[in-house]
């Protein structure tokens, strides 16, 4: 493996470690990264009740894991669900007071704090690199979740 390839792998592993450390509470009954993403989506992106199908599309996963995560969040008291009055097939999800309180302790805020303390030029470079990785991934090698050593 070339030195540049090792450096790229090392950078990817550091990103993984940073995110893993943010979600260090992994005991039974703890809130999972997907559940945090759902709470964030409802609390920061969408005002009012959100259709469960929209949440799934927004966080980029299929309906089944989102449905399971929402049921777990209901057990935590973080969200309330109900049928859409205009379309009874659709489930709407809304944050509760507990969910809003939980968002104040969102583990992703620790990463945001680290970014906030970066030098302004580092922030610009970091944001640019992230946009480069996520906006047009097909231009930058295999999709996330795929691996190729070619």
In short:
This protein has 150 residues and is mainly alpha-helical. The chain contains seven helices and three strands; from the N terminus they run ααβααββααα. Residues 142-150 have low confidence and may be disordered.
What secondary-structure arrangement, pairings included, does this model have?
Layout: H1 3-22, H2 33-45, E1 50-51, H3 52-59, H4 63-76, E2 79-83, E3 91-95, H5 97-103, H6 108-116, H7 120-135
Helix pairs in contact: 2-3, 2-4, 3-4
Keywords:
single chain, mainly alpha, Arc Repressor Mutant, subunit A, 2 domains, three-stranded antiparallel beta sheet, 7 helices, disordered C terminus, MarR/SlyA-like, MarR family transcriptional regulator, HTH_MarR-typ
Structural commentary:
The protein has helices at 3-22, 33-45, 52-59, 63-76, 97-103, 108-116, 120-135; strands spanning 50-51, 79-83, 91-95. With 150 residues, the chain is mostly helical. It folds into 2 domains: 21-105, Winged helix-like DNA-binding domain superfamily/Winged helix DNA-binding domain (Arc Repressor Mutant, subunit A, Orthogonal Bundle); 107-138. The chain has a 3-stranded antiparallel β-sheet. The protein is elongated and about 55 Å long.
């Amino acid at each position: 493996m070339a030195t540049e390839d090792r450096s790229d792998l090392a950078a990817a592993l550091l990103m993984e470690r940073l995110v893993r450390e943010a979600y260090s509470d992994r005991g039974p009954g703890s809130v999972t990264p997907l559940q945090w993403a759902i709470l964030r989506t409802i609390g920061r992106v969408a005002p009012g009740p959100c259709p469960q199908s929209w949440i799934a599309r927004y966080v980029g996963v299929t309906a089944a894991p989102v449905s399971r995560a929402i049921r777990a969040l209901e057990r935590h008291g973080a969200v309330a669900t109900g049928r859409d009055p205009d379309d009874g097939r659709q489930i709407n999800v809304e944050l509760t007071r507990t969910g809003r309180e939980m968002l104040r302790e969102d583990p992703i805020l620790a990463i945001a704090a680290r970014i906030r303390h970066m030098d302004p030029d580092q922030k610009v470079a970091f944001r640019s690199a992230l946009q480069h990785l996520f906006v047009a991934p097909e231009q930058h090698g295999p999709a996330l979740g795929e691996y190729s050593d070619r």
